Amino acid sequence: MRAMLILATLALAQAAPQQGPMKNFGDWVVACDNVKRCEMTSLLPEGGDWSDDGWQMAVSRDAGPGGPWTVELDGDGPASGVRLYVEGAPTASAAAVWRGTRFTGGDALAIVGAMANGKAAVVRDGAGKQIGRISLSGTSASLRFIDAEQGRAGTVSAAVATGTKPASAVPAAPPLPVIVSVRATGTSAALSDALLDQLWTQSDCAENYEDGNRPGVDRHALGGGATLVLIPCGAGAYNFSSVPYIVTAGQARVAAFDSAPGWTGDGPPMLV
Question: What own/partner pairs with CB < 8 Å and gap ≥ 24 does 190-195 have?
């Protein structure tokens, strides 16, 4: 009995999962995961033409005192011979040229330093022709956000919010959470026509199949008399989407998540 009380107390003491903030600064978006690995990604500038700016850049940093940077470029055309320049950076950085599409170590650190004060990252091919131009508006604020989230502000390891504290003052990465898997048992419940019609209507997915040719509904037993029901809600060339419900004793409720799935708007959660 005492052991059960201890386990119950520990379970109550565990903090509920919290999704970290996602911030948009200028033409960049930045976020950190639950072990404080942070990534910032370029966006197409407002009013920009994708045909002229078909290259994107992602910059990530691991947590901890020695957390390294990684810089990656992604765009149209062959990656061989690609050169990266930072336009508008201080003289030394503006003259620098980095070759490739993925950078780590000292190269990544130098690129990040140049980006903080630059105007654009210019991508050229092996012949020197410009094939991409990535706005750096918002990079300084994004880097400052990473400094704060990883506890680097005021230390020598910060990208923007530098200080005199040693890198050892930066906290270590949080431990990875332990997820206890549950082996589902039992048999999935049969669904009445009335309940299915209710779920099709409630999910707003019926409107995607106005011809009446609706695909089959997936059902999966979760144990304890519960069944996961996935209502199809459209499909593309490679992906399909669905709205999840939990059905127990003939009653359905929308499945709950620790954080909303990526395509969820104001309606029910959408799985892709």
Answer: 191/217, 191/219, 191/229, 191/247, 192/250, 195/247, 195/250, 195/252
